[in-house]
């Protein structure tokens, strides 16, 4: 195992690339959008520098990561020699299937293909390829370099060898892996979306302010972040797509809160737009 390629340089993609690089792997980060890829490079460089100056990275790991991180807009070039490809594009099934069909065609035959989905079916994604036994979900958490968990979700055809391979990779990144049988939302997203959606309903109903709802969850239930803070961090558009998928697959209790729909329509997407349930301006 020498090379990891990450497809998609958004929040999760750049976090996975950074974590893979400081773990000693050669890493290609790919994005068709050159501007987004350049922005990701700048942010990863800033994080490397900050981590090194703060004493969180040893000099040899810092220098190795600088050497090992490569940025490539051409997908075929980025994945040609990859042993593991981790897709981190938007949570849209049609888009993921399109990416995996391309990867199946251009990756070497033994390459493992993983999706960093938080809700969607690796079985459905893998079925669009000629290697469903080598397709798996690796659900990382934001921020990737700090969060310890990786959910490893086995599709219907995913082999034991593939599951063992990605669990070993997660361990090499100093992560704890939990193995999950495929079901919409897996473990964490299924629970987290319910909690977040109920917090949004309470906020909409005027039960309490966003600050007090989050404070109650942090101090009363020992959550490290409040559910509304977390939704802003994840991105309200991303949360809405997750809720819509869970609503379609699991039913009424996952119906998205109306205020979430309204905020997304208004462009209030959380931290990335500088306004969500909180104002970040």
UniProtKB/TrEMBL annotation:
Name of a matching Pfam family: 3HCDH
Occurrences of domain 3-hydroxyacyl-CoA dehydrogenase C-terminal (ranges): 185-280
Domain 3-hydroxyacyl-CoA dehydrogenase NAD binding intervals: 3-182
Known pathway: Lipid metabolism; butanoate metabolism
Keyword Oxidoreductase: yes
Keyword Membrane appears in the UniProt entry: no
Keywords annotated in UniProt: Oxidoreductase
Cited InterPro entries: 3-OHacyl-CoA_DH, 3-OHacyl-CoA_DH_NAD-bd, 3HC_DH_C, 6-PGluconate_DH-like_C_sf, 6PGD_dom2, NAD(P)-bd_dom_sf
Family, similarity comment: Belongs to the 3-hydroxyacyl-CoA dehydrogenase family.
Protein's name according to its UniProt entry: 3-hydroxyacyl-CoA dehydrogenase
Originating organism: Sporosarcina soli
